[in-house]
Design goal:
By secondary structure, the chain is an alpha+beta fold. It has one domain (4-176): Jelly Rolls. Helices cover 16% and strands 34% of the residues. The protein has helices spanning 41-47, 49-57, 164-176; strands at residues 9-11, 24-31, 34-39, 60-67, 71-76, 87-91, 97-101, 121-123, 131-133, 139-143, 148-155. A seven-stranded antiparallel β-sheet has the order 1-9-6-11-4-3-2, with helices on one face. Helix 1 (41-47) crosses helix 2.
Length: 177
C-alpha cells in the first residue's frame, strides 16, 4: 500500500460510473436498512473495461444503495452478518456525505472500553469515481441534506476467500500492471 489511507479506500483508475448510464432492473429491496435498486450486472460490465476485467476474475452483483438526508449509519464492520471483506463503491449523486473509519473505536466507553476519545479517519468520495472500499474496519456513514446514492458491488466470494488487501494487490499488479 502506498499511503496510510490505502488501508481504508483506494481510488480505482477506471471510467466514471454515472447514474444515467446504469442499466437498472425493476428490482428493489431492503438490504441492511438501506433501500437498494438492482443493476443488470452483465449489461454494466459491457460498458466498463475495469468492471469487465474484474467480473471475469470475481463475480459480483451490483446495485444502487440509497441513504435518506440527515441520517447516520451506525458504526459497524461488514465481516459479520454481511460477510463482506471488500466491496467497490462510487458515489453517484452530488450529496454531501462522508465515511469515518476508526481503528480503535472499541476503546470508547460507549463500546465497552475505558476511553472517551478514539481516532477517526474521514473519507469523502469523488463523484462518479470507483473506490475499492475496506468494510472490515469499523466505519460509519454520515449523510447530509440530499439523498445519497451509492453504486455498490458485492462479490459472490465470502470474506475468507476475498479480502481487501488481496484485491487491492491484484488490481495494482494485474489490471494496472
Amino acid at each position: 500500500m502506498n499511503n496510510a489511507y490505502d488501508k481504508y479506500a483506494w481510488k480505482i483508475p477506471s471510467d466514471p460510473i454515472k447514474y444515467e448510464d446504469l442499466p437498472l432492473l425493476d428490482v428493489k429491496a431492503e438490504y441492511y436498512h438501506f433501500d437498494v435498486q438492482e443493476i443488470d450486472t452483465l449489461k454494466l460490465i459491457e460498458k466498463n473495461e475495469f468492471l469487465n476485467w474484474l467480473f471475469a476474475r470475481h463475480q459480483f452483483r451490483s446495485g444502487i444503495v440509497k441513504m435518506d438526508p440527515f441520517k447516520i449509519y451506525d458504526w459497524h464492520e461488514d465481516v459479520g452478518a454481511t460477510n463482506r471483506g471488500v466491496c467497490i463503491n462510487a458515489l453517484i449523486s452530488p450529496s454531501p456525505s462522508l465515511v469515518m473509519w476508526s481503528d480503535n473505536l472499541r476503546e470508547l466507553q460507549s463500546q465497552g472500553g475505558n476511553s472517551f476519545q478514539a481516532d477517526i479517519v474521514p473519507f469523502q468520495y469523488e463523484l462518479n469515481e470507483l473506490y475499492l472500499f475496506n468494510p472490515s474496519i469499523m466505519h460509519s456513514v454520515y449523510n447530509f441534506e440530499k439523498p445519497r446514492l451509492l453504486f455498490s458491488l458485492q462479490f459472490e466470494e465470502a470474506y475468507e476467500d476475498l479480502k481487501y488487501e488481496e484485491l487491492l494487490n491484484e488490481i495494482k499488479n494485474e489490471y494496472i500492471g
